[in-house]
Amino acid sequence: MAEIDFHAHILPGCDHGSSGIETSLRQIALAKAAGVDVICATSHFYGHQIGTEAFLDKRARCWLALREHLKEDDPRILLGAEVLAFEGIERLPQLEALCLEGTDLLLLEMPFAHWSERLIDSVEALSERKDLHIVLAHVDRYDRQQIEMLFSFDRVKGQINVSSLKRRFLGGYLREWMREGQIVAVGSDIHGTDTGYSLWQRAKRRYPAEWNAVMQETGKRLSKLL
Ligand SMILES: [Fe+2]
Fold it and tell me: Which CATH class is domain 4-221?
C-alpha cells in the first residue's frame, strides 16, 4: 500500500512552506526516510491575492526548478493546491484546475475565523458540482459540529494532519471519522522542516488500523495515478 502525504508545502518559493531548493530537498529527504511514497505538493492558493492562471504559472516554475534536483528513488510528487475557501468561490474561473493533478480532488481550507452563512452556502454550491470532490484540509483543527455539517453535503470528505495523531488518546470523533471513511487522507502539512515527517511514523504505529483504513481510501482515489 502506497504511503501518500496528501497535504504538504514543499515547492521552493511557491509559498511560505519552502524558501528554496535546499529546504525542499531536505523536506523530501525527511519524507523518504519516513516511508512516504507520494507527496502531494499543495501550495497555498489565496484567491484574493492571485488569479488561478497566475498561480498555476508560478507553481509550474517552482516545480521545474525543483524537478531537476530529484533522484529516481525520491517520493513521487503530484501537484495540487490548498485552496482557501471564500464567499463566492463557486464562481472562481478554472477552479477545477486547482484539483490535485490527474484527479477531481480539491483540497479546501476553511478559514479559522467565523464562517458566515454565505461562506457555507458557497461550500454547499461547490459540493453540488459533479466534477469535483472536496477534501477539507486538516479537519482536526476545527469545531466538530461545523465539520460534520460540511460532511453532510455531497462529495465532501476530510483530510487529517499527522500532528493530531501524536496524542495517545485520540479524540473519539476523529477516530470514528477515520473508521467510517469521512477522513480520506493524511497530511504532514509540512512547512519548512518542522515536525511533519518525524510524526509520520509515530502516528502510523500508534493508530495502525485507522491509518491503514485512511491510506486505502487515499489509494483508491489516486489509483489511476499510482
Ligand atoms: Fe497547509
Answer: alpha beta
Greatest extent of the chain over all pairs of C-alpha atoms, in Å = 48
Q: Are 47 and 78 in contact (CB under 8 A)?
A: no
Domain boundaries, the chain: 4-221
Is the pTM higher than 0.90? The answer reads: yes
Provide the percentage of residues in the chain whose pLDDT is more than 70.
99
Instruction: Convert the pLDDT of each residue in 111-138 to its tens digit.
Output: 999 999 999 999 999 999 999 999 999 9
CA 75 – CA 132 distance, rounded (Å): 26
The H-or-E segment that residue 156 falls in is strand 156-161
What distance in angstroms lies between residue 206's CA and the mean position of ligand 1's atoms?
Answer: 23
Q: How far is the CA of 8 from the centre of ligand 1 (A)?
A: 6
- How does DSSP assign 99-111, residue by residue? SPTTS-EEEEEPP
Give the model's pLDDT for residue 43.
Answer: 98
Q: What separation in Å is there between the alpha carbon of 107 and the centre of ligand 1?
A: 9
Q: Residue 131 Cα, ligand 1 centroid: separation in angstroms?
A: 23
